Amino acid sequence: MKDALESTDRQERWRLILGGGQADGIGCKLPGQWTDVDKALSELYDKGDRRGGLGSSAPRVARWLGDIRDYFKADTVRLIQKDAMERLNLQSMLLEPEMLEAVEPDVSLVANLISLNRVIPARTKETARTVVRRVVEELMKRLETPMRSAVSGALDRASRTNRPRHAAIDWNRTIRANLRHWQPDYQTIIPERLIGYARKQRSTMRDIILCVDQSGSMANSVVYSSIFAAVMASLPAVRTSLVVFDTEVVDMTEQLEDPVEVLFGVQLGGGTDINRAVGYCQSLITVPSNTILVLISDLYEGGVADQLVQRTATLIGAGVQVIVLLALSDEGAPSYDAELGQRLSNLGAPSFACTPDLFPGLMAAAIKHEDISQWAARNEVFVKQKGK
Questions:
Q1: Does residue 300 contact residue 351 with C-beta atoms inside 8 Å?
Q2: Helix (H) or strand (E) holding 267
Q3: Which pLDDT tens digits describe the chain residue by residue (388 residues)?
Q4: Of the candidates 116, 297, 301, 275, which has an alpha carbon nearest to the alpha carbon of residue 221?
């Protein structure tokens, strides 16, 4: 049926778009096979306020979701699901296991399940957990390898030295770097530059702290942050902490072995006290020059903004790399407090939005102590000011 939809003629496509009755101004009668498609679309897009129009019958919603998955491809299904959430108030429907089994899982659905976690009935929790795990596994397949490669490569390069001891010379890299010094008369290379590894010290370990705002607007960022934190926590040369906050601060570091458990431990919504959260992160820092603090927040501070600015200045002055991500998601330019973002940027804490695909590169740049503002400009991730 999905492929058959692509073979409909132009009139039939317009008829599906316009709907029936008075909306149908072209007088086209749909063939029998498209009647069910039209009915499924009408459930959502009929004229008038259809909020709650599917009633409270979860089995009916499940059948409807099953229908649209049969009729449309996955990207179209996700778009229809998003419309359904808004137009039909399907958040209440997420509390039923039959609906969860029929839904096409994606990051937005995971965010909805997390936000409803405290009210999901016990009989539905296992189904919700299965849906979340399926999305997390798909995201891990997509993001784990780039994250490992970027961070490991950055740590590898950061530990190199051009004055290695003889036993620490990396001969393969040294030869490649000196090929231009090949001496044909002697059939050898004169290595003008030696490449090797510095003696590993405890102080060279990178401490990465992800401090994540769990207000409702940051839901997708929470999902991606949890996955990236879990990947980095498995790398031996990185010590990763995950801290989530609203008006309270919760350290999720001990749960990083299972990002699904992390997500179900998050409580989306509520107020925001960024200063308090950054203060807690400050207490975790032991070697400032080897610490990267990534604050993921839209910066709508419910605490004391001036204290947050002062605390950030103290951290940067001590040698901590502070990066502010206004969003870690694919949702486009976020809404955020532009004034506070500018104040933090002026201190040396660049503030911008970042997609999940670019995040591994960002962390690699931070590990190598690159200029993050220049990195952001090269990757065109600065967002247009659209604060409230």
A1: no
A2: none
A3: 444 455 556 766 666 666 666 555 556 676 666 777 777 777 777 645 544 444 444 455 666 767 777 777 777 887 887 777 777 666 666 777 777 777 777 888 888 888 777 777 777 788 888 889 999 999 998 988 989 888 887 776 655 555 566 665 667 777 777 777 778 887 888 777 766 655 444 445 789 999 999 987 888 999 999 999 999 998 888 899 999 999 899 999 999 999 999 999 887 777 789 999 999 999 999 999 999 999 999 999 988 999 999 999 999 999 999 999 999 998 777 889 999 999 999 999 999 999 999 999 999 999 988 999 999 988 877 554 434 4
A4: 297
Q: Are 69 and 77 in contact (CB under 8 A)?
A: yes
Specify whether the backbone of 270 is left (phi greater than 0), alpha (psi in -120 to 50) or beta.
left
d(CA 85, CA 52): 10
What is the residue type of 362? Answer: L
pTM for this one?
A: 0.72
Per the structure block, which two tokens stand in for 18? 């316009």
For residues 385 and 345, give the distance between their C-alpha atoms in angstroms, rounded to a whole number.
13
SS3 call for 182: strand
CB 120 within 8 A of CB 95: yes
Q: Dump the DSSP string for 51-99.
A: TTTTTT-HHHHHHHHHHHHHHS-HHHHHHHHHHHHHHS-TTGGGGSHHH
Contacts of 297 (CB under 8 A, 6+ apart): 211, 212, 213, 218, 272, 274, 324, 325, 326
Task: Measure the CA–CA gap between 338 and 347, rounded to whole angstroms.
Answer: 14
Radius of gyration of the chain (CA): 26
Q: How many other CB atoms are found less than 10 A from the CB of residue 57?
A: 14
Reduced to 3 states (helix: H, G, I; strand: E, B; else coil), residue 169 is strand
The C-alpha atoms of residue 79 and residue 97 are separated, in whole angstroms, by 21
